[in-house]
Amino acid sequence: MSPYMLIILIFTLGLGTLITLSSSHWLIAWMGLELNTFAILPLMAQQHSPRAMEATIKYFIIQTTAATMLLFASVSNAWLSGQWEIQQMSHPTPLALITIALALKLGLAPMHAWFPEVLQGLNFSTGLILSTWQKLAPFSLLLQIPPTSSFLLITLGFISVLMGGWGGLNQTQLRKILGYSSIAHLGWMILIMQYAPPLTLLALTVYIVLTSSMFLTFLYNQATNINSLAISWTKTPMLTALTPLVLLSLGGLPPLTGFLPKWAILQELTKQGLTPVAALTALSALLSLYFYLRLSYATALTTPPNNLPATLPWRIIFKQPTTFLAVLITMSLSLLPLSPSVMAFFTF
Amino acid sequence: MSLLKIARLPPLKLLNSIHDPHLLLHSNAPLTVLRRALSHNKYRRPGQPIEDKFPWENITFNFSKGLERIKKNFKLLKQEFSDRWVGPEGKSIINHMLEQNRVIWEFRGPESLQEWTVSSDEMIGGQSKVYLKLGKNDTCFLYGTLCSAPPRDGETRYSGYCAMRSKQPLASFDRKKHYDWSSFNTLHLRVRGDGRPWMISIATEAYFSHQKDDLYSYFLYTRGGPYWQDVKIPFSKFFLTNRGRIQDDQHPLWLDKVNTIGFTLGDKVDGPFQLEIDFIGVCKDFAHTEDFAYETCKRNPEV
C-alpha cells in the first residue's frame, strides 16, 4: 500500500477512536465509530486474497449493523428524552439496544461468531489492531452509559467467558484461538463494568498488553497454527521460552500479570454478593486455561518432528525490531507485584 | 379399438398453484400431452431429464427413514461433543502434532464410493460417459468414454469432459464440515492411469457468490502402464481458476477449509479412459519451503 495512504488510514483510525472517546453527543460518538470502521477496512483488504476480502466484508456488515442499531437507539432516546447526551440516557429500551449494539461491535457472546472468522482471514498486524485498538471506542461508550439491566450485562459477560472457552477448545489455528481468547476476556470486563468500572479499564489494559505480546510473538515466528508454533524453538529459542509464560498469564495464573484483573474482578463480584456468578466464571475460565496450556505444551514442552535442528532460520525477518515486544512481554509477566500501584492508577 | 388412457387430473384446488392458465381447462387429451405442456414455457437443455412430475409428486415421505436420520444426526452431534474434549478433530494434541501423513480417502469397500460423485458433459447434452466402481484390488476405478462432440443446442461450442468429485463432508444435521489440512503441505496420491493428463481441483470454502466456482487446480500426468504412480504435489503449486479459466489475481490455497477434491479429464482426445486410484492423502514435506509458486504482484501496473 502506498505509504501516504497508510498514514491517512492510520491517522483516521486514531482520529475515529479519539473522537468517540472525547465526545458527549451520540451523533459525534457514532461518527467516530464509523470513521474507525471505514479506516480499518482498506487495511484489512490490502492483501486482496479471497479470505482477506471475506473477512473485510464480514467485518463491514457486522460493524455497520451495530452502528445502525446504535444510531437508531440514540435517535429513539433523543425522541423519548429530548436530549443527546451519552451519560444522560434514561429510557431502558434504547439503553438495552445500545448495549446490544456495542456488544455486537465488540464481539461479545452471543454475537461473537464473526470475530474468530474475521481474525482468521487477516494478517497478524491487522488482527492486532482489530483485537486491541478497535475495542477502545465501544468500551468508552459502554463505560459512559448508565448501567442498564444488571441481568443483561451479567448474562453477556458470563456467556462470553463460557463461549470464549468452549469455542477455543478445538482450534488449531492460532488466530482463531486468540479470537476466542479475546471473547473470553471481554466477558470478564463486561461482568464487572456496572459495579467497578475502573476494574474494567484495568482488565482492558492488561488484556491489550497480553494480546499484543501474543500477536507480535506469532508475527515474529510467522506461526499460524499449533504445529508451526511447535517448531518455533528452532527459530527463536528465547522467545519460545517466554511464550508459554505469556500464555499462562493470559490464562490468569499467578504470579503473572494476567492474574491481577481476574483476582480483582472475582473479589469485587464476591463483595457485591454475586458469589455464584464469580464461582461459575472462574470455572469457565478453566476452559480457556486448557487451550492456553495446550499451546504452552506444544510450544515449549515437546520436540515435534522437524527437518533439522536449525531448520529454516532464513525465514525469520531478523531486521524486525523486537524492543516493543520485549517491553510488552516484561509487562505481561512481572506486573503482579506492582498490583497496589496499578490499582491505584486505575481507581482515579 | 382400445380405449385411450384418460389422465386423472389432480383436484382443481391444487391446480390453483399452477400459473399457466391453459392447464386449468379440462381436456380429454392423453396424459403425455398435458405433462409436456407443464414445462413447454421453459427451455430444457439437451441432456436434462424431462420434468414430467408435478412438484408434489416428488415428495417421498418415509417416517422410518426420518427416524433413522434423526438418530444418526444425534449420534454425530454426541460424537462432536465428545471429540471436543479429546483434541483437535477428535485426536489428542500429541497425535495432531506428530501426524505427518494422513490418508483421507482409501477405497477399500463399496461404501467408500458413496463419498464420490461423477459427472460428465452428458448433463449438458454431450456424449461422454463416466462410471465409477470398485477395482479388482479394492481401488477406485474411474472409467468411461470421452467424446468432444458438442451438444447440438445452438449455443455450446466446446465439450468433452468427465469428472469425479468428492462430496462435501457433512457434520450433524447436514451442516457443512471442512477438511483442515493446514498441518500439511503436499497432496500425495497413488494412481495408475492410461497416460492421459488429468486436472486435480481442490475447492475451498467461499463466501461470495462469484467465488462459488473457484477451484485451485494442478495437473496430474499419468503414465500408462502396469506400475503404480506415487504423485506428490505441493499445495503451493495449485493455481486459482474459476469455471476453468486461470485467474489473473493468484492467491495461495488456504488449507484450513477445504471442501472437496476432484479429478477432471478434458484433453480433447476422444476415446475410452481409465484411472485407478489407490489412496489420496496429505503429507508434510519439511524440505518443501515454498509458500506459493506464482507471482502475486500486480500485473500491468499503472504508470
TrEMBL record, chain A:
Compartments, as annotated in UniProt: Mitochondrion inner membrane
Q: Which GO terms describe its biological process?
A: mitochondrial electron transport, NADH to ubiquinone
- Name all NADH dehydrogenase subunit 2 C-terminal domain ranges: 289-341
- Is Transmembrane given among the entry's keywords? yes
Q: How does it sit in the membrane?
A: Multi-pass membrane protein
Q: Which UniProt keywords apply?
A: Electron transport, Membrane, Mitochondrion, Mitochondrion inner membrane, NAD, Respiratory chain, Translocase, Transmembrane, Transmembrane helix, Transport, Ubiquinone
What GO MF terms are annotated? Answer: NADH dehydrogenase (ubiquinone) activity
Keyword NAD tagged: yes
In the UniProt record, which is one GO cellular component term?
mitochondrial inner membrane
| First-level EC class | translocase
Q: Give a single Pfam family match.
A: Proton_antipo_M
Q: What are the NADH:quinone oxidoreductase/Mrp antiporter transmembrane domain coordinates in residue numbering?
A: 23-286
* EC numbers, comma separated: 7.1.1.2
Q: Where are the transmembrane segments?
A: 59-80, 92-115, 151-170, 177-195, 201-220, 241-261, 273-293, 324-346
- Catalysed reactions, semicolon-separated: a ubiquinone + NADH + 5 H(+)(in) = a ubiquinol + NAD(+) + 4 H(+)(out)
Q: Which family does it belong to?
A: Belongs to the complex I subunit 2 family.
- What job does this protein perform? Core subunit of the mitochondrial membrane respiratory chain NADH dehydrogenase (Complex I) which catalyzes electron transfer from NADH through the respiratory chain, using ubiquinone as an electron acceptor. Essential for the catalytic activity and assembly of complex I.
Q: What is this protein called?
A: NADH-ubiquinone oxidoreductase chain 2
Q: Which organism is it from?
A: Kryptolebias marmoratus (Mangrove killifish)
From TrEMBL, chain B:
Biological process terms from the Gene Ontology for this record are: mitochondrial electron transport, NADH to ubiquinone; mitochondrial respiratory chain complex I assembly
Q: Name one Pfam family in it.
A: CIA30
Keyword Glycosyltransferase (UniProt): no
Keyword set, alphabetical order? Chaperone, Mitochondrion
- One MF term in the entry's GO annotations: unfolded protein binding
Occurrences of domain NADH:ubiquinone oxidoreductase intermediate-associated protein (ranges):
105-277
The entry's localization annotation reads: Mitochondrion
Principal cellular location given in the protein's record: mitochondrion
Task: Give an example GO cellular component term for this record.
Answer: mitochondrion
Q: Which family does it belong to?
A: Belongs to the CIA30 family.
| Subunit annotation | Part of the mitochondrial complex I assembly/MCIA complex that comprises at least the core subunits TMEM126B, NDUFAF1, ECSIT and ACAD9 and complement subunits such as COA1 and TMEM186. Interacts with ECSIT. Interacts with ACAD9. At early stages of complex I assembly, it is found in intermediate subcomplexes that contain different subunits including NDUFB6, NDUFA6, NDUFA9, NDUFS3, NDUFS7, ND1, ND2 and ND3. Interacts with TMEM70 and TMEM242.
Q: What does this protein do?
A: As part of the MCIA complex, involved in the assembly of the mitochondrial complex I.
* Record-given protein name: Complex I intermediate-associated protein 30, mitochondrial
The protein's organism comes out as: Kryptolebias marmoratus
